[in-house]
Amino acid sequence: xxKLIAFPLLFLVILPLSAVPFSVSAATGIRFDKTxxxxxxxxxxxxxxxxxxxxxxxxxxxxxTALDYRFGDKQNTSHIISASSTFFPEDKGGWxxxxxxxSQNFIWDFFSIRYGIGVQGSVSWxxxxxxxxxxxAPLLSLSAAFSLDPIxxxxxxxxxxxxxxxxxxxxxxxxxxxGKINENNAVFVDSYITFAEMLMDRVVTDYAWSIRAGYxxxxx
Length: 220
Hints:
This protein is mainly beta. The protein has a single domain, classed as Porin (Beta Barrel). 6% of the residues lie in helices and 64% in strands. The protein has one helix at residues 2-14, and strands at residues 22-32, 40-48, 51-58, 62-72, 77-88, 93-108, 111-125, 133-148, 151-159, 171-180, 185-195, 206-218. Strands 1-2-3-4-5-6-7-8-9-10-11-12 form a 12-stranded antiparallel barrel. The protein starts with a helix and ends with a strand.
């Protein structure tokens, strides 16, 4: 919990010293899966220019850390390089990976469509296995957004999720709704469902679902 508090405070100290745009956000909610002891989940994130960092904690479900760097125009065409890791409690192990995602956004008035395609390489370790396991998985995403100021609603499907990153091939579908309070402040609700890895078995099995609410501050 101390890490969750220190993370946004660090950004609040550093960001005013910078002339580039920045944002900070915090969220909490529930996430149910097959193994976690408690559904409560907490997350914080910060973004400075093209660099962003995420931190999420769920008791019994692991600690997620991620660092993303974006090249190009965030609103249109972008290239995103990410370094992600999840550490599980009680010596269950964890995983770490590096990914690349190419993304394009097409905007028509109040409606937009974004797609992304990329790849992720990861290594997983656990005391249940004598050797580390590795994977090379595709990254795919498709979303449709409707913006009717001050509300923005986005429907999305993807392989992997910003707040539920995995080292395996795991599909997601969800809905993100954001409401602007003013030019700098906004609140949001994000909900999704994810399914168990399907590369080894064609049977579709739900693995987890989550819903959370949060707050965002954007400098401009």
